[in-house]
Specification:
The protein is of the alpha+beta class and 108 residues long. The chain has a domain of 60 residues. It is 49% helix and 14% strand. It is built from three helices and three strands. The protein has a three-stranded antiparallel β-sheet, covered by helices on one side. The longest helix has 26 residues. The radius of gyration is 17 Å and the shape is globular.
Length: 108
């Protein structure tokens, strides 16, 4: 196995504590990065990997987040007011749907 992609494991409590301390995750239940909604998946290339329990998406690393932020800024700057309003409405519907799904799981 290539050492560049080897996954190692540490104590998951330590991984979560470090992620909260660094700001990658949060201990605030209202945050979209709430640690209670993530699973520790191991450490790869020195980066602790976390996967969201509902969406199964990995928490982005800082370099990925910076790239995505830059790409989104360029796309948003090119949008008309109506396109921005449509986007906000679509995102609102998605957020409401996710919150309802999460609430359904929490009530079980």
């Amino acid at each position: 196995m290539d050492t560049e992609t080897k996954v190692t494991f540490k104590d998951s409590g330590q991984a979560f504590d470090e992620a909260i301390e660094s700001g990658r995750l949060s201990d605030d239940r209202g945050s979209n990065k709430y640690a209670g909604e993530f699973m520790y998946m191991g450490t790869q290339n020195g980066v602790d990997m976390f996967k969201h329990t509902m969406t199964r998406r990995y928490l982005p690393q800082e370099s990925e987040r910076e790239q995505l932020t830059e790409q989104m800024a360029v796309k948003l700057a090119a949008m008309s007011d109506m396109e921005l309003i449509d986007l906000v409405l679509e995102l609102t519907v998605e957020i409401v749907g996710l919150k309802e799904t999460i609430a359904g799981y929490e009530s079980k």
